[in-house]
Design a protein that fits this description.
CATH class of the largest domain: Alpha Beta
Largest sheet: 3 strands, antiparallel
Number of strands: 7
Low-confidence stretches: none
Number of domains: 2
Radius of gyration: 31 Å
CATH architecture of the largest domain: 2-Layer Sandwich
Number of helices: 4
């Protein structure tokens, strides 16, 4: 009886070992990368169990939500994206222009400068709400999903193209214009009071 158990044990161990070795050597070839929507995707039995990243990569779906990007020239600094963001990963500072700056690619007038437009992708939950509310469609989700960095601070992307000197100059121009408007308003009030 015990000889039978020993033989049965060796037979079972041999079957398990041959199965393991067959999978080990069968997985030496690279897996062919095909889309998950392909009918044969789950029928792939040969090749490695995982793709060989970064040499191979999965096809990116068209509706995927990945890294955010901002076309700052099309931004009207309306602040809607920052207001709707549920995790507050978008920080915007605007400076009112003294005159019309120009137009976006869709013809919207630009009256605000983006002194600061930062997105902290470490906080981002990739919900896509910011892209939906943007009236000029300047904030979009790209198909880039690999933004590996060594420092967490490197995930804070700055999209504003204004230098600190430009920002100070635009603020000074706005303050000067506001002071002139206030002086003109006071002069009009004094003139009105003097005329009565």
């Amino acid at each position: 009886m015990s000889d039978n158990k020993v033989i049965n044990g060796f037979t079972t161990a041999w079957k398990g070992l041959t199965l393991t070795l067959s999978h080990l050597f069968a997985s030496s070839a690279k897996r062919k990368v095909i889309s998950a929507s392909d009918n044969n995707y789950f029928k792939q039995l040969e090749g490695t169990n995982t793709i060989q990243y970064p040499h191979q990569s999965l096809p990116v779906p068209e509706v995927g939500r990945y890294q955010l990007d901002v076309e700052i020239d099309d931004c009207i600094v309306c602040d809607l994206c920052a207001k709707i963001c549920p995790v507050d990963c978008i920080t915007i500072e605007s400076i009112k222009a003294t005159e019309l700056i120009g137009n976006t690619s869709d013809g919207s007038p630009k009256r605000l400068y983006a002194a600061k437009f930062d997105i902290d992708m470490a906080k981002c939950m990739y919900c896509g709400l910011c892209t939906i509310v943007c009236p000029t469609e300047c904030i979009v989700m790209t198909n880039q999903y690999d933004k590996t960095v060594f420092e967490l601070k490197d995930l804070n992307y700055e999209f504003s193209d204004m230098t600190p000197e430009d920002t100070a100059e635009k603020r000074a121009l706005l303050e000067k214009q506001q002071a002139e408007k206030q002086a003109a308003k006071l002069a009009a009030i004094q003139k009105k009071e003097a005329g009565e």
